[in-house]
Design goal:
With 378 residues, the chain is α/β, with parallel strands linked by helices. It is built from 10 helices and 22 strands.
Length: 378
């Protein structure tokens, strides 16, 4: 007996147990009352148990394209995301950054890409639940899952996990003299590049974010300085080459010691971590691009086969739990390359496999969109 059957059976038993304990004289009256109660309870329970074909955990690029493709396969779809808006990391952390490796777009701002992907996904009117964090996954039957969030319960035939890197918090320097300026000149990401126009900006870090922000702000800031504690960057080689040929002032083997100022920082003290030599530079704003600590939360307790903070999937993008799929940064397999382009492809694969999981008679290979068009428009 499944958990679902057990729960429903228990509810019915609770209704009829008083009848069993009653004498025959009151039986007919009580039976009528109990059947009414069961009928009402059944209506409420069925209304609560609205089952979707697929529920997507995460509303970033992979989740959004998964929702679009589920619509193409005419699957009822729900998206659940812990953030207050769709877009995932792109909208929460990097809305003003340009993306250069999305097919069909030589250059597109992250917020603009999200806007277009949301428009694409919403063509099929999926149910969207924002500000909800999924904390539990329970298999009730062969093709029925219950997802428990911090606000509600959701029922679905299949699940597609597109949770990205999970919850993310910025890595800090651990220096109170720097952190006291957070939000008042010290930032961990950029949500409005115009706020840095004409300012002297110091960027700390050597990854893609640090280099990308330096190149993005170079045309509008009065001056951009980047310091990195090593002489090797983690950013893309082409971006580093652009950086070195730009007007950005780069200091290698340098770290931030402190910031001076009253309400806002006005100068930074940096030092060479090999010689100890210190320099004082004028600043109006500091971007600490030190990366983010990630946490996938309760997913580790869902019975999924994990590899660190990643979910293992097969060539169908299915996890070790039949009917549960994963795509995007959260999914891993041999040869995995983390790109938005690969993430959306994985989501399409997962959705088509989910369609067949629900209905084994359905075709796995979808018809070409250029041939059939959008289902709602046919």
């Amino acid at each position: 007996m499944t958990t679902y059957e057990h729960e429903w059976g228990t509810k019915i038993l609770r209704c009829f147990l008083p009848i069993i304990l009653l004498g025959a004289d009151d039986l007919s009256i009580r039976m009528s009352m109990q059947f009414d109660e069961v009928t009402k309870m059944n209506e409420v329970f069925q209304e609560k148990l609205q089952v979707y074909d697929i529920t997507i955990i995460g509303g970033g690029p992979s989740g959004l394209f998964g929702a679009f493709y589920a619509g193409m396969r005419q699957m009822s779809t729900k998206i659940i995301d812990a953030q207050p808006q769709l877009g995932g990391q792109l909208i929460a952390l990097y809305p003003e950054k340009f993306i250069y490796d999305m097919p069909g777009f030589p250059k597109i701002r992250a917020s603009e890409l999200v806007q277009q992907m949301v428009e694409q996904a919403m063509q099929f009117n999926p149910t969207v639940c924002l500000n909800e964090r999924v904390i539990g996954l329970e298999r009730l039957d062969e093709k029925l899952f219950k997802l428990t969030t911090d606000k509600n319960e959701h029922y679905t035939k299949t699940v597609l996990i597109c949770a990205g890197i999970g919850a993310f918090t910025p890595r800090r320097l651990g220096k109170p003299e720097v952190e006291r300026f957070e939000g008042k000149g010290v930032f961990y990401t950029v949500t409005d590049i115009n706020a840095f126009e004409g300012k002297r900006v110091l960027i700390v870090g050597g990854g893609d974010s640090a280099v990308d922000w330096a190149l993005t702000l170079e045309p509008i800031a009065q001056k951009v300085t980047l310091i990195h504690r090593r002489d090797q960057f983690r950013a893309h080689e082409h971006s580093v080459e652009q950086l070195m040929h730009s007007s950005v002032e780069v200091h290698l083997f340098h770290e931030l010691e402190t910031l001076n100022g009253n309400e806002f920082p006005h100068e930074a003290v940096i030092y060479h971590n090999k010689t100890g030599e210190k320099k004082v530079i004028a600043v109006d704003a500091v971007i600490l691009a030190l990366g983010f600590a990630t946490d996938i939360g309760q997913m580790k307790n869902w019975g999924l086969e994990m590899d660190g903070n990643h979910i293992k999937v097969d060539q169908r993008m299915m996890t070790n739990i039949p009917g549960v799929f994963a795509a995007g940064d959260i999914a891993t397999y041999i040869g995995k390359v983390k790109l938005i382009a690969t993430g959306v492809a994985e989501a399409a694969t997962a959705v088509n496999q989910a369609k067949v999981f629900i209905d084994p008679t359905a075709r796995l290979q979808p018809a070409f969109s250029s041939t059939v068009g959008i289902p709602s428009q046919v």
